[in-house]
């Protein structure tokens, strides 16, 4: 397993009126973060909050290219990002959820204390597949066929790339002591956006370059 220190390249926030950052996602232009009772849109250039949507936003956030998905207690809400209207809801897996991502036409729900990542049917909430982790899961993302998740236990957090079939840890990026990760999203290229929990910040972490000759399964 490859292990290295995470390279934090930028910090956003803390943001006015947002005591904490829960889920994080990226729509290709703007960063979204959940702050308990709102979803907030951040301009990645200026770091300013452009607008907010009043909606329960307790944990993970995802974007499928058209709609937002947001964990709210024991439900996952499908939201129109333009109007803020909740279009549909599905049940979250038993035990709730922490992280949330969209890939391969499905939602991927991280569970904190259960240490699991579930692939979930976005129409019904049915669990299609489960990947086990050996640490608390606080964020999930896919990039270039790679499954990454964030952890947060005590005073320690890291980002880890795992085998999506077996859950084996392939690579870890250690965050500095005391720097927590409460949500995770890739920009689809060379950066991760990391929710900072009660710090009220979103941090950008450099994604490691892929090793020559290493290939990944294509992301649908």
Strand order of the largest sheet: 1-18-17-16-15
Overall geometry comes to globular
What pattern of helices and strands is seen along the backbone? Answer: EEEEEEEEEEEEEEEEEEEEE
Portion in strands: over 45%
Give the proportion of residues in helices.
Answer: under 10%
Summed up, the helix count is 0
Main sheet characteristics: 5 strands, mixed
What does this structure look like?
The protein has 220 residues and is an all-beta fold. Helix content is 0%, strand content 51%. It has no helices and 21 strands. A hairpin with a 6-residue loop joins strand 5 and strand 6 (49-57). It is globular and about 45 Å long. Residues 215-220 have low confidence and may be disordered.
How are the elements arranged and paired?
Blueprint: E1 2-5, E2 8-12, E3 24-26, E4 31-34, E5 36-42, E6 49-57, E7 61-63, E8 68-72, E9 75-79, E10 86-91, E11 100-103, E12 106-111, E13 116-120, E14 127-132, E15 139-143, E16 146-153, E17 156-162, E18 169-174, E19 183-186, E20 191-195, E21 202-206
Keywords:
four-stranded antiparallel β-sheet; mainly beta; disordered C terminus; five-stranded mixed β-sheet; 220 residues
